[in-house]
Design brief:
Number of helices: 2
Number of domains: 1
Distance between the termini: 8 Å
Structural class: mainly alpha
Strand content: under 5%
């Protein structure tokens, strides 16, 4: 791979890292809202949906981290 294509990939990795940070902020805010939810609502559909949201966001972060690792492997070859 030439220098220019490596540069493009490195820029994309930087962008993915920024996306991860933003998704983590949203997940943290969702977790804070979940933690602040009154006990009377903890068995509600809304509570369950919020738990699912957090789990899905964490999975998305994990998938993005895997993509970054794969792209970095390509850059380093």
């Amino acid at each position: 791979m030439n220098k220019e294509r490596r540069k493009i990939l490195k820029e994309q990795v930087d962008g993915l890292n920024t996306i991860i940070i933003n998704i983590q902020c949203v997940a943290d805010e969702e977790q804070d809202a979940l933690d602040a939810m009154p006990e009377s609502l903890q068995m509600s559909d809304r509570y369950s949906d919020m738990e699912d949201n957090i789990s899905d966001l964490e999975e998305a972060i994990s998938d993005l981290e895997t993509a970054i690792e794969t792209i970095t492997n390509v850059i380093d070859r």
